[in-house]
Write a structure and sequence with these properties.
about 100 residues, mainly alpha
């Protein structure tokens, strides 16, 4: 879980220069067999802790960046615990399309 105090410390240490807090990055490839429950729990904790703070409650919460499209169904609907969805598109060795 993530605490309100931790989020406030990060925010204050960066002099308020925080555009948002992001849930897990690519949990479906990095967190092992319990990635679904870990992702659900962490995302809910992050959102709840941030919104409970008078200091960071206006900082947007971004959902987890899931790698495989089939993994979204496994993690379920977390929209109640994020302000924005999230994905990380990679161009690999290719240039982005114009």
């Amino acid at each position: 879980t993530v605490s309100t105090a931790t989020l406030e410390t990060i925010y204050n240490d960066l002099s308020g220069n925080v555009a948002g807090f992001e849930s897990y990055n690519e949990p479906d490839i990095f967190l092992g067999s319990t990635w679904v429950s870990k992702t659900q729990s962490y995302t809910q904790s992050l959102y709840t802790s941030a919104k409970a703070s008078s200091i960071v409650n206006n900082v947007p919460i971004m959902g987890p960046s899931i790698v495989w499209p089939t993994s979204w169904a496994a993690v379920g609907d977390l929209s109640a615990y994020m302000d924005y969805g999230n994905f990380h598109p990679y161009a690999a060795a290719n240039r982005p399309m114009r």
